[in-house]
Amino acid sequence: MEKIIISGGKTLSGKIRISGSKNSALPILAATLLSKNKIILKNIPNLSDSQSMLKLLESLNSTILQTKEFIKIKSGQPESCVASYNLVRKMRASFLVLGPLLARYSYAKVSLPGGCAIGARPINIHLECLKKMGVNFEIKDGYVIGKVEGLLKGAEIKMPFSSVGATENILMAATLANGQTVIKNAAIEPEISDLANFLNAIGAEIYGIGSRTLKIIGKKKLIGGKFSVMPDRIEAGTYILAVLGCKGKIKLTNLNIDLIKHLINIFSSISELHFKISKDKTMLEVLCMKRVKKNLKIKTDIFPGFPTDLQAQLMAAMSISDCKTKIEETIFENRFMHVQELIRMGADISLKGSNAIIVGKKKLNGAEVMATDLRASSSLIIAGLMADGLTTINRIYHLDRGYENLVEKLSSCCAEIKRI
Ligand code: EPZ
């Protein structure tokens, strides 16, 4: 089993190129099932999650050519529109093939994704909304089987909660439905806009992109096209929090002005973080030289609030500070798996329901720790970079799901980190 070993206590200094967004690439890859024409995708991050999605598409008769510069995909008629358990259990985002398969082939059999370390993660909203488009569902032997007579029907859909994945499944399904679909209370995470822009680039007709009301005019078919996936705001936020925890200065490149504004906004309550934007608005420099003094109160929320995907990393970064931090996790019911490991490194964290109280310490101590989920693993990386002495992180396959070349990127910023 591979591990990561860190010799902590170094300030960070250097430059990191931010990779394409995992949470944009995965729905966009699923959406290639909607068209029978050739599609060229750029800036797809080389992660185990993207490879899992590509394997799933191949099992559904997509022809895939991967090069360093781009991925070429051409989806063919699947023998069976089945997303099997052994593929879906590895990555719940596989569930995003449900909408495209129903839209294209009027049938889909997708394994229930099951829960994961951070929560039960039900799919009720996905099913409720697709039912309104004429889908009949049956749950059998751990699979969701969806059938629709002829084409999906355009519908007016008000989402009970702005679920990211459910918005994506409905949006993709609506592009080939008969008639118009209006999605109200849609999620507005930037990755949704990226998916909608991709769909329009291959012939879909979507209006209201970036707003909570999306209008989609169904088409008979979609065409081919080219698209470059947006940069990963969670990867960028993770490195900003590494600077907050370790101190120093890092330049983040390959960003865009919308993401830069979003990142500066979510960290606006931490006055010890200083930002500088490059003239061409693609690079963000983050500088931090002092420990945070003013008590911090952060609540995770749907976009544009503080992303739940940065909660664990913030907790690690604030473990060394001259203040108290209160973090409320409002999106997932069990996203504090990293707390016990951080406590083993000397962090002073107490949990009360969905709240975590972190009392800042002067230092952390390196230890042998274990990753439990993707973002928990990146919070342990940050804690290891901050701690005195050696930290060994086990089960780093969690990390490889969402961070491309993390060890190389941090090593180029003066961190003493290696993979064994
Ligand atoms: C996406 O997950 C992301 N994953 C998650 O990132 C992210 O944390 C999450 O959105 C919230 O921003 C991808 O994009 C691949 P949701 P998703 O549906 O779509 C409940 C990471 O670390 N819910 O918005 O699953 C659900 O249980 C991952 O990169 C229902 O109750 O998120 C959760 O409590 C982790 N019923 C909340 O909504 C449903 O039918 C948010 O879930 C669907 C969701």
Concise structural overview:
With 420 residues, this protein is α/β, with parallel strands linked by helices. Helix content is 30%, strand content 26%.
Structural commentary:
It is a single chain. With 420 residues, this protein is an alpha/beta fold. It has 2 domains: 4-19 and 232-419, UDP-n-acetylglucosamine1-carboxyvinyl-transferase, Chain (Alpha-beta prism); 22-228, UDP-n-acetylglucosamine1-carboxyvinyl-transferase, Chain (Alpha-beta prism). Helices cover 30% and strands 26% of the residues. The protein has helices at 22-31, 48-59, 85-88, 98-105, 124-131, 164-174, 190-201, 233-246, 257-266, 311-317, 339-344, 374-386, 397-400, 406-411; strands spanning 4-7, 12-17, 39-42, 62-66, 70-75, 82-83, 107-111, 136-140, 143-147, 156-158, 180-184, 205-207, 213-217, 225-228, 248-253, 274-277, 284-288, 296-299, 324-328, 348-352, 355-359, 368-370, 390-394, 416-419. The strands form 6 sheets. Strands 22-23-1-24 form a 4-stranded mixed sheet. Strands 2-15-17-16 form a 4-stranded mixed sheet, covered by helices on one side. A hairpin with a 2-residue loop joins strand 20 (348-352) and strand 21 (355-359). The longest helix is centred in the middle third of the chain and has 14 residues, at 233-246. The structure holds ligand EPZ. Ligand EPZ is lined by residues 22-23, 26, 93, 119, 121-126, 161, 163-166, 308-309, 331-332, 374-375, 402.
